[in-house]
Specification:
It contains no helices and eleven strands. Strands 2, 4, 5, 6, 9, 10 and 11 form a seven-stranded mixed beta sheet that branches. A hairpin with a 4-residue loop joins strand 7 and strand 8.
Length: 114
């Protein structure tokens, strides 16, 4: 399984971004997917997750401002982030667990200016 994240960029506070993570192989219908983020000097933290059945869960820091979704036909998971804050600045990574292994995308940088 290979995960390719994209969609990061520089945005002003209050703006929006949609991150994408495309996976090789048709796995979304069978796995849970998640987004994590890591700010400079901080540990990687969980942001959001979606189960194979479509149930979603969010970290308190992004709840109400973010939406995780999947497009199984495109083997892609999305993270729509609105009302972005400077503290959302981080490298964002997609993640899944499949076949006994944990897989990570390469990360996409989100920078929110104040």
């Amino acid at each position: 399984v290979q995960l390719q994240a994209s969609g990061g960029g520089l945005v002003q506070a209050g703006g929006s971004l949609r991150l994408s993570c495309a996976a090789s192989g048709s796995i979304f219908s069978r796995v849970n997917m998640a987004w994590y983020r890591q700010a400079p000097g901080k540990q990687r933290e969980w942001v959001a997750a979606i189960t194979s059945g479509g149930n979603t869960n969010y970290a308190e820091s992004v709840k109400g401002r973010s939406t995780i979704s999947t497009d199984n036909a495109k083997n892609t998971v999305y993270l729509q982030m609105n009302s972005l804050k400077p503290e959302d600045t981080a490298a964002y990574y997609c993640n899944t667990y499949y076949g006994g292994h944990v897989y990570w995308g390469q990360g996409t940088q989100v920078t929110v200016s104040s």
